[in-house]
Amino acid sequence: MTKKLSFLSLLLCAAAVVVLLVEVRVTEAVTCSPTELSPCISAITSSAPPSATCCSKLREQRPCLCGYLKNPNLSQYVNSPNARRVATACGVPTPTC
Prior knowledge:
The protein is mainly alpha-helical. The chain has a domain at 37-90: Plant lipid-transfer and hydrophobic proteins (Hydrophobic Seed Protein), CATH 1.10.110. 62% of the residues lie in helices and 0% in strands. Helix 3 crosses helix 6 (81-90). Residues 32-97 form the Bifunctional inhibitor/plant lipid transfer protein/seed storage helical domain. InterPro entries: Bifun_inhib/LTP/seed_sf, Bifunc_inhib/LTP/seed_store, nsLTP2. It holds the Pfam family Tryp_alpha_amyl.
């Protein structure tokens, strides 16, 4: 009986840790910084395919794309045909803002 109780306690503690880790991960905020997309510059300014790093950064910055589109200094780059091609290649949908 003691072994079952110890196992159950251990299982409950492990479940609590998993729940806490998931909660922490959900609450992490993305820092919107267009410079985070610098790995995508060569793909956006040429016909080169995006790198894995570019796609990773683009997915990371996805919550920020509407803000970039609304910024007159950035919208011409974010909304360009090459930027859309890169986003499509990375599997990042064009935001509807």
